[in-house]
């Protein structure tokens, strides 16, 4: 498949349960599976193996989708993208569970639109050039749960390609109720010496946030990283923030390190650093999105 393995376009409607399962998709140039349109009551994408030549593993632009037990391997730029759909409405009830994403050239999972809710659980991401789970500027969500995932060797790009970049294993933004629990994060930005900021878990402009019971180790280059780095970085929290029972280590093996690193860093709305990190993201929201975020 030189273009897309399975493609349901923007004008598609699914009015009964729809399942895409147990397919082997190789050599695609745009996406392994691309599903847009409108689904009721839902779509299940499970047990597929996707190895693109380039492009994306999956592009999903409809709500009511469960993405489970798929494998997306080398060749893909991004693993799973959640994008705006046919009607431009917030996507309902997304579940991303039990997937394996390996050796991707971009980001692992990206949220690029408005969501009612998303649960991202029990996924394994390894050797990802960009971010692990990333909510892009302009996205927002009612609730997002990130539970019991494994992120290993995230932001593996070489120093020369990371200049000014912001990297994290998990990066949420503009969520009303966010929970990040029981995840294992090992290795973020090991060679990203020119990155603007590196974090294990990052959360920007969330209203209610809980970060608990995560294991976070090996964050940023091993020595003398001069820009901000943190195990958990919270930027411009709006409401309630709870951070509890996390295990955070700069590096597993102790070394001589002069980096200005912090295990937990919270940048309030009035702080200059928060404004630099978050201002562009907030400005990209629509007027409605800015009101909802505040």
Could you give a quick summary of the protein structure above?
By secondary structure, the protein is mainly beta.
What does this 3D model show about the protein?
With 294 residues, the chain is mainly beta. The chain is built from 2 helices and 30 strands. The protein has helices at 272-283, 287-293; strands at 4-8, 13-14, 18-21, 24-26, 31-35, 38-39, 43-46, 49-51, 56-60, 65-68, 71-72, 78-82, 94-97, 100-104, 109-111, 114-121, 124-128, 133-135, 140-147, 150-154, 166-173, 175-181, 184-188, 197-204, 208-212, 215-219, 229-235, 240-244, 247-249, 261-267. The protein has a 10-stranded parallel sheet with strand order 1-5-9-12-15-18-21-24-27-30, with helices on one face. The longest helix is centred in the last third of the chain and has 12 residues, at 272-283. The protein is globular and about 55 Å long. Mean pLDDT is 88; it is low at 290-294.
């Amino acid at each position: 498949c030189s273009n897309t393995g399975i493609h349901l376009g923007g004008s598609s409607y699914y009015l009964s349960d729809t399942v895409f399962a147990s397919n082997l998709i190789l050599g695609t140039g745009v996406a392994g599976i691309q599903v847009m349109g409108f689904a009721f009551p839902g779509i299940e994408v499970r047990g597929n193996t996707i190895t693109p030549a380039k492009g994306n593993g999956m592009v999903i632009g409809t709500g009511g989708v469960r993405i489970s037990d798929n494998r997306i391997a080398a060749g893909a730029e991004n693993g799973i993208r959640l994008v705006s759909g046919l009607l431009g409405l917030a996507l309902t009830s997304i579940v991303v569970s039990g997937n394996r994403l390996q050796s991707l050239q971009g980001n692992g999972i990206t949220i690029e639109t408005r969501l009612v809710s998303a649960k991202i659980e029990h996924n394994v991401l390894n050797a990802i050039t960009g971010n692990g789970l990333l909510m892009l500027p302009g996205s927002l969500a009612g609730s997002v749960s990130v539970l019991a995932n494994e992120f290993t060797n995230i932001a593996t790009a070489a120093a020369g390609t990371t200049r000014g970049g912001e990297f994290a294993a998990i990066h949420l933004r503009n969520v009303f109720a966010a929970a990040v629990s029981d995840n294992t994060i090992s290795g973020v930005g090991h060679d990203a010496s020119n990155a603007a900021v590196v974090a294990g878990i990052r959360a920007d402009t969330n209203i209610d946030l809980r970060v608990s019971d995560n294991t976070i180790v090996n964050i940023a280059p091993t020595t003398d990283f001069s820009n901000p780095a943190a195990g958990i970085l919270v930027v411009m929290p709006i409401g309630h923030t709870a951070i509890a029972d996390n295990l955070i280590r700069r590096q597993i093996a102790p070394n001589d390190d002069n980096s200005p690193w912090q295990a937990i860093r919270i940048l309030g709305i009035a702080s200059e650093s928060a404004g630099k990190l978050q201002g562009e993201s907030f400005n990209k929201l629509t007027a409605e999105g800015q009101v909802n975020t505040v």
